[in-house]
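Quiz preparation item.
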């Protein structure tokens, strides 16, 4: 993209409403704009990050054997009356009436709807186990939306749901999802720790939250220092082998890690004192096993092998896709701006033309842009070099190709790696080869 013709409104001033680095940087780098409290428009650069994250999440869900569906954002209240959650959910639920006075709601989560979809079509034990997921907008009328997209009211979530015939089958899917989550976070370039967690309004008795450690996080967490140095090696386990899943789950849950709601002082006391860590973290994912809570309440049963009626054992699995954008920035930024992990950067390369209007510089910059069109943001504005340097660092492209008149005359560019600040002078070919 050409920056001169893009809706990427970078700003120099620090927005006063933003309290944490990621919120400030998302506004300053022109990724999003707020349209109402906790509701954001995603501008081109922000949307590219969101899509890149969603693509990685999608690939790992597919690899875990979940099938993608897309359910509506608007749901009928009747489904929630069946499960009993219509009253229980409280004020976080945005309730809507249509012109016929029918009660609708903007979905905060989808256990009821997916259970309804399965009960309409799945009748026999032979069709299970199954898992399905979607990447879809949710609405929760948070009392205090804050920190930008981290606690929005409208937000993008990957939500998966599983149906198994028995407890053992449900546990396999739960562990498979845990492995898929660890792989997802690894590919996103962040470290998230699975911690024993409360189940909240979803209900159930087995649950883990995935927490990225950050001083600005809203969760209070307690964990064994083992999690700081362990390389989980999520890639070394076969997601289709239940022995591998068991081993992986054993490693993940072998050391103490819990959020404050589930903090267990007895177990904590058994962790060696010099290994006890206490801090703040951001909840980026949450998985639940809740048995037959919804299948029984909503009367979704299948016929078992002996003709008996079986209520499927269910679980649900969320990742905060839009929250992840903020969380990644919290985990990876410096004074100058964002430092995108290569896997999610909106643009892999920023091309900086330091002397727009100079024939030789323009020609070289256009040539480089022509070769990198799909992955580059070309700063072709008639701004001073200093402004372009600052904006490129702010936007956080993993690579910068800097083109000035002197270098261009000798066929040279400067290549800068954002994460390390390393710069070197190279020919265009060598720079392109290095970027890969
Ligand atoms: P929180 O404790 O932050 O309110 P939650 O426990 O209510 O989150 P879940 O129901 O577990 O959220 O939803 C799954 C995931 O959706 C969360 O782990 C989080 O990443 C994301 N999420 C939840 N609420 C929001 C929100 N208001 N804004 C952005 N992402 C959210
Ligand atoms: Mg919540
Ligand atoms: Mg929570
Ligand atoms: Mg949660």
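Solution:
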């Amino acid at each position: 993209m050409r920056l001169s013709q893009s809706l990427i409104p970078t700003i120099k001033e620090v927005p006063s409403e933003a309290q944490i680095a990621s919120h400030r940087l998302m506004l300053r780098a022109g990724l999003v704009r707020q349209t109402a409290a906790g509701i954001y428009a995603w501008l081109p650069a922000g949307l590219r990050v969101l899509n890149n994250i969603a693509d990685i999440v999608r690939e790992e869900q597919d690899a875990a054997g979940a099938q993608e569906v897309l359910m509506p954002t608007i749901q009928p209240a009747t489904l929630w009356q069946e499960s009993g959650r219509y009253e229980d959910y409280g004020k976080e639920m945005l309730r809507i009436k249509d012109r016929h006075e029918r009660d609708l709601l903007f979905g905060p989560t989808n256990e009821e709807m997916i259970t309804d979809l399965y009960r309409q079509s799945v009748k026999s034990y032979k069709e299970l186990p199954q898992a399905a997921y979607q990447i879809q907008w949710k609405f929760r009328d948070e009392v205090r939306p804050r920190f930008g997209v981290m606690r929005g009211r409208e937000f993008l979530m990957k939500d998966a749901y599983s149906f198994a015939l028995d407890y053992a089958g449900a546990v396999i899917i739960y562990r498979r999802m845990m492995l898929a989550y660890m792989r997802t976070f690894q590919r996103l370039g962040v470290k998230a720790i699975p911690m024993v967690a409360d189940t909240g309004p979803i209900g159930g008795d087995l649950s883990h939250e995935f927490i990225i450690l950050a001083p600005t996080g809203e969760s209070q967490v307690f964990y064994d220092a083992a999690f700081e140095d362990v390389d989980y090696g999520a890639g070394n386990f076969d997601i289709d082998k239940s022995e591998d899943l068991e081993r992986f789950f054993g490693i993940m849950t072998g050391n103490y890690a819990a959020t404050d709601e589930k903090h267990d002082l007895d177990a904590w006391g058994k962790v060696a004192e010099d290994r006890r860590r206490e801090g703040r973290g951001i909840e980026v994912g949450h998985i639940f096993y809740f048995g037959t809570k919804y299948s029984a309440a909503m009367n979704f049963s299948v016929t078992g092998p002996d003709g008996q009626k079986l209520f499927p054992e269910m679980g649900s699995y969320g990742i905060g896709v839009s929250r992840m954008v903020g969380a990644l920035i919290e985990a990876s930024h410096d004074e100058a701006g964002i430092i995108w992990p290569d896997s999610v950067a909106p643009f892999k390369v920023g091309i900086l033309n330091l002397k727009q209007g100079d024939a030789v510089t323009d020609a070289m910059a256009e040539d480089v842009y022509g070769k990198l069109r799909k992955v580059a943001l070309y700063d072709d504005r008639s701004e001073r070099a200093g402004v372009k340097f600052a904006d490129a660092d702010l936007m956080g492209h993993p690579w910068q190709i800097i083109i000035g008149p002197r270098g261009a005359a000798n066929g040279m560019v400067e290549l800068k790696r954002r994460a390390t600040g390393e710069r070197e002078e190279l020919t265009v070919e060598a720079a392109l080869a290095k970027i890969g």
